[in-house]
Design goal:
Blueprint lengths: L1 H27 L12 E3 L1 E3 L2 E17 L2 E5 L4 E6 L6 E2 L4 E5 L2 H37 L4 H33 L2 E3 L4 E6 L6 E2 L4 E7 L3 E7 L12 E6 L2 E10 L10 E7 L10 E18 L3 E3 L5 E8 L6 E13 L3 E6 L6 E3 L11 E4 H22 L1
Parallel strand pairs: 1-22
Antiparallel strand pairs: 2-21, 3-12, 3-16, 4-11, 5-7, 5-10, 6-9, 7-8, 9-11, 12-15, 13-14, 13-16, 14-15, 16-20, 17-18, 18-19, 19-20, 19-22
Helix pairs in contact: 2-3
């Protein structure tokens, strides 16, 4: 019996020691304000301010176009005999680009020149005859009728002379118009015919794009026109690169297909402009709506299509806060922040991040305060470990 009693006491002794150790451990994990131990979770908070408006950057698409462009063609029909310009070439104002075959016009000119010479010769003869008739009439050897006939013949010859001279002028004009000249410094955007082709009057031969400053033509909604004025500097994106421009004209009619008004913007000289490329005009639109700017990380998904923001309500004394869930509606979102409306108030504190680690009703402290508490905790724990040692 004694042996059994000793064995039982030996068995119970380590068990009691273990219970005592567990009790000490439990006491060490309890809140100990004097030791500076953190008993609440630290979170980052931010104060929010009420706003009455917010701005949205709108991008409106358009095309890069030359200041002037034209499909150049002859005013006359004929066969293209010479074509000196090709697609992509740069030409100067007044430079000859193409010519029509003028053989028929030159033949007509020679014919008209011969007629004019004949008429001039007849006029000279008429003058000589008229001079003789005047002399004979003074001596009584010629009738008044013959003098009148020569005067009428002279008037007829002068009229025919004027007619032929006008025909020669028309002929020269047709010859001049058989030569196609560049109306301005430009680049040949396209060539539609080849040498030897017979074209009608007005048939496009070459497309010319004015060299120099390019412009963007952008469709803008009517509601945004009040934010633009002629001469205003604006921001654009061309070929994926940011650039600037100056408004040079505002349209006065709505394009039915897009329900927008065309706006012409002169691009900066260093803009990466290629005719036909897309350009985006960037305008800020101010929206009137009461709300608050909050970080995107401060928003979590709620119920019934709403979103939640966690507000931090200070407890008595202000050292700790209690998490409260607030329903909000996202009106607009950017890369790092969102504009929301809902059950929030000015100067209220909200949790900026780490919402997945929190629940409504949880007690927290501000991250700045927790850092100071953590430093104090480390010192105290070291001192206590030294004392136990």
């Amino acid at each position: 019996m004694r042996k059994s009693s000793l064995s039982k006491s030996q068995i119970l002794r380590p068990t009691l020691a273990a219970v005592a150790l567990l009790g000490l451990a439990a006491c060490s994990k309890s809140a100990d304000p004097e030791a500076g131990q953190i008993v609440t979770q630290p979170v980052e908070m931010a104060s929010i301010q009420p706003q009455s408006t917010y701005a949205i950057q709108r991008d409106f698409a358009g095309l890069v176009v030359p200041a002037q462009s034209t499909d150049l063609g002859f005013e006359l029909a004929g066969k293209v005999s010479v074509l000196t310009a090709d697609e992509g070439e740069t030409v100067k104002a007044g430079e000859t680009l193409a010519k029509l075959d003028t053989d028929l016009l030159l033949d007509q000119r020679r014919e008209l020149s011969a007629q004019l010479e004949e008429i001039i010769a007849n006029i000279d003869l008429n003058r000589l005859n008229n001079k003789r008739i005047v002399e004979l009439e003074s001596k009584g050897f010629a009738s008044k009728q013959r003098a009148d006939e020569l005067a009428t013949e002279f008037d007829t010859l002068r009229a025919r002379q004027a007619q032929v001279e006008a025909a020669l002028t028309t002929n020269q004009t047709r010859i001049d118009k058989s030569e196609l000249l560049a109306p301005f410094d430009s680049t040949v955007g396209a060539r539609f015919v080849d040498a030897g082709a017979v074209v009608n009057a007005g048939t496009p031969v070459l497309r010319l794009l004015e060299s120099g400053q390019a412009e963007a033509r952008v469709g803008v909604p009517v509601r945004m026109l009040d934010s633009l004025s002629v001469g205003q500097s604006v921001s654009l994106s061309v070929a994926g690169q940011a650039t600037t421009g100056q408004v040079i004209a505002l349209g006065q009619n709505v394009t039915r297909s897009t329900l927008t008004v065309p706006v012409r913007v002169a691009l900066a000289p260093d803009a990466p402009a290629v005719f036909g490329d897309q350009a985006y005009l960037q305008l800020d639109e101010t929206i009137t709506a009461d709300g608050f700017w909050v970080p995107l990380e401060a928003i979590t998904e709620g119920m019934r299509g709403l979103w939640n923001v966690y507000a931090a309500r200070p407890e008595a004394g202000g050292a700790e806060y209690v998490i409260e869930s607030r329903d909000v509606r996202v009106l607009f979102a950017e890369t790092e922040r969102a504009y929301v409306s809902g059950a929030l108030a000015g100067d209220e504190l909200i949790v900026q991040s780490g919402l997945h680690r929190l629940v409504p009703g949880q007690r927290v402290v501000r991250a700045e305060a927790s850092t100071r508490l953590g430093m104090a905790t480390g010192v105290n724990e070291t001192a206590r470990s030294g004392e136990s040692g």
